[in-house]
Amino acid sequence: MTAQPDVYAQLTAEGQDVDRLVADLDTAGWERPTPAPGWTIAHQIAHLAATFRMAELAVSDPDAFTRLTSGLSADFNANVQHALAGYLAEPPEVLLKRWRAERAAVDDALTATPPGQLVPWLVRPLPAAVLAAAGMMELFAHGQDIADALGVRRQYGDRIRHLVEFVVRTWDFGYQSRGLAVPDVQLRFEVTGPSGASWTFGPADSGERITGPAVDLCLMATRRRHRGDLALTAIGAEADRWLDIAQAYRGPAGAGRQPGQFTGATA
Q1: Which pLDDT score, from 0 to 100, does residue 264 have?
Q2: Backbone angles phi, psi at 27, to 5 degrees
Q3: Cα separation of 34 and 62, whole Å?
Q4: Could you give the percent of the chain with pLDDT greater than 90?
Q5: Domains in the chain, start-ordered, CATH in brackets?
Q6: What pLDDT band is residue 206 in, cutting at 50, 70 and 90?
Q7: Which three-class secondary structure state does DSSP give residue 209?
Q8: For 236, left (φ over 0), alpha (ψ -120 to 50), or beta?
Q9: CA 256 to CA 217: how far, in whole Å?
């Protein structure tokens, strides 16, 4: 499985979509709470800015990235808060400019990098194209939090396939983040894109299957919706277990979202 060749352009487009959510917010809007406990819209954008800064460093100066990450503490949440602090200290208009600058820097760095070239990242080295897909995952997840805070229903196109591929690639993260043994199984994913296109991943003869809308898979794997509110079906005991623990990122899983929390607003 490889990321699609246009993933760099799609990362840019995803960033522009999130940008439109916040571009015209006043100060009160930036301070609006999001579904992530303790996080305002400003926190969400600060996190994205810090993540994109790290991604740009990983692509353009791998040695500097390695030095930076080697100095991180074992406290994941402390590292996150430290990364946010400098951005949150800025007024909203400066935070917005800095986030836009970090996105532009990543776009430039990736454009100059062959998609298959390995770059260091927080868990393991990734092809540059897969790092771009990871960036799309961050934008999808935190953009959903912002949209939920603003009461906006997001619209998705088939570029979400890049994120589906990333979810499939990182299927083991949910086990690892909980200290669970990764089972010796291969999941089969059969999902439907926003256009109605059918996308399949994994062995066709697997007895462990996940089926349903691609957007729902991404909402579930980023833990922005509870599985009970999504149209996903699991066939097989391990597939069913996976829907409870899946996450497309490392670090603490957090409480996730509660069933019925967003009834009628799954995207």
Answers
A1: 54
A2: -60, -40
A3: 33
A4: 82
A5: 7-154 (1.20.120.450), 160-245 (3.30.1050.10)
A6: very high
A7: strand
A8: left
A9: 14
